[in-house]
Amino acid sequence: MSHRRAVALMVLATLLWSIAGVVARQLDNAASFEITFWRSLFAALALSVALTLMRGPGLWRGLAKARWPVWFSGLCWSVMATAFMLAISLTTVANVLISMAIAPLITALFARIFLQHRLPARTWAAIGVAGVGIAGMFWKDAGTGLSLTGSIVAMAVPLAAALNFTMLQHVGHGQGEPANGPRHDMLPAVLIGTILSAAFTLPLAYPLQASAHDLQLLALLGSVQLALPCLMVVRLSRQLAAPEIALLGLLEVLFGISWAWLGAGETPHASTLIGGALVLAALITNEALALLGRGAQRARNGHARE
């Protein structure tokens, strides 16, 4: 896969992810845990079909024999799928997406803790600035308990995403692999995550009240908004560098807030925009400096070889 094609696919994945909020706002009766249940169930069905076509009948035998990184990643996907839709039902789309945008910085912090990666001063500064932005959003929500609960639930998404992405990078670079065996197949982890999410939320979803119209929209969310882009990103994590994925992933914030504003009339609060601007500025500055630094290093190495 060429780099240009990988970037285009990552942008497409981000665009697909971003429709969740505006579609959820069009539902008639389904709410909270029922939304999460149906979305995860439809995603599990779509992934079952797609992965069976890709892997054959051996997919299910492979799941039973999967090693711990696959199940760990599946648990992370489950938390992400569950917390995201619960947060969407409790607070604004903008709050959820901006809370999620901090995931690259949490990933950097986890990489320092679990993978012993050194963090430059600029990344520590970015974590601090983004933290101020998130804290500002939480302070605004403190007066409205329901919205604050939604923002707190939303923070589970970047935490789980950071753990998941750290694992994907660990495995994607050949670390943690069996000494004498095949590499871990991480794609089924997404299927495991959706099955766990659906199983966890089913008892909490009763009584089921989704209309036929709701089920159509939830099937769209499960298959097109969740299953397809998740498979794409797991594959692209082997093709694109972490900073590129982080920067391109920020498009979900811009796309998602725009969809909610244009399609659901959900105008972000001023404090949300200010907090979001701090988070995005910290992320963009950090990743841009990282890319510039690597470019300068490659140039120095090129001159040294000449």
Automatic annotation (TrEMBL):
Pfam families: EamA. The chain crosses the membrane at residues 40-58, 70-90, 96-115, 122-139, 145-165, 186-209, 215-234, 246-264, 270-292. Keywords: Membrane, Transmembrane, Transmembrane helix. Residues 6-138 form the EamA domain. InterPro entries: EamA_dom, EmrE-like. The keyword Transmembrane applies. It comes from the Bacteria. The keyword Transmembrane applies. GO terms for cellular component: membrane. This is Permease. It comes from Candidatus Accumulibacter phosphatis.
